[in-house]
Design goal:
By secondary structure, the chain is an alpha+beta fold. It has a domain of 114 residues. Strand 7 and strand 8 form a beta hairpin. Bound molecules: zinc ion. Zinc ion binds next to loops.
Amino acid sequence: MFLIKNCNKILILCVYYIELKKIAMERMNFNDVKKVMFAGNAILTFLSVPTQTRFTFAIERFKQSTSNPEAEKSQPLGVKLLTGSNNTSDYTYMGTIFKDLNFRVKNNGKISVNAPSFKAFQYVYDKVLKGIEDKRIEIYHSGQCCRCGRLLTDPESIKAGLGPECIKIVGKLI
Ligand SMILES: [Zn+2]
């Protein structure tokens, strides 16, 4: 009986370890986030672990260069927030990351600087720049549905590799 009890404990620990590893593999570390952010064509979803609040941002360089990294570096990055249900088109301009790496609102931003989404971006961007990990925040770059090819921005879908409709259909195929 004692042995069985301990076996169960070991099994639970193993499962817990595998789950932790799985999460660690799927979420990005902030160093990798930084690279993706400056790549010029990123769609990133920030998830707050304690509150499960999430925001999706498109971070796009105004002009990209295939041959001159210095010229590319001088081009600012536009930051847009996903504000609708279509994750390929429903983005609203929020601010700009300039050459000096400062994130500022150009002209009149359409998203209030006091909005939780704006504050979330500012907070995470600061941490990412400084290379300070924050375990309460998970960041995912967009995925692609393995059945229909659509863009995935919901962390659960990214992890599954399938959108909510396709995951149901695939369940019937196997
Ligand atoms: Zn799909």
